[in-house]
Design brief:
8 helices; single chain; mainly alpha
Amino acid sequence: MQLFKVLPLAGVLLLAAIVFVWRPWPQRRRHGHSGIFLFRSGDRLQKVRDSMLLVMFALLAGQALVAAVRPEMLPLAEADLSSASGIRRGLGAVLLFVGLLLLVAAQLNLGASWRIGIEEGARPGLVTAGLYRLTRNPIFLALLVILAGYTLLLPTLLSALMLAGGYMAIRQQIAEEESYLVRAYGQAYRDYARRVGRLLPGIGKLD
């Protein structure tokens, strides 16, 4: 039982380490930049979305820390963790760590094209291999899987709101990034988007 209380915190810390430490390090060594381009857009709404990303990380980590150290402060989560089915908790753990593995694979597939945020004017190359043969946005799919697993492990109102809000924010970010990719790669991206689904295979292809 105690293990399931610390899994959300472990997952969030791994997520932060993967996104902000592990992946930027080889990016800087090989390509001369970290790949993190948050808050560099001239678009005010994009800066708001970048801020929401950091706020969500803080909320995920904060709630997970409370659940691990002072679970009595989260009465809904504590009651659920003490009585709910182990199947749900097990599913949550599987989704959390499968999502992390998917995230790692998707980020590696991008190579020099990996970015957090939009670097307007950059043309590092359109990636269509690896996981990108199945979905145009495997990183965002991985993040949603991670959030779903986190919510199953910590079924609080805050978790549910972050899952719903994360989905809406991801849909908006995908739209912005697709607009950039059309500007950057033109017909090559349109042809790719007509073959491959937006998040799930075969779903959300460009008309």
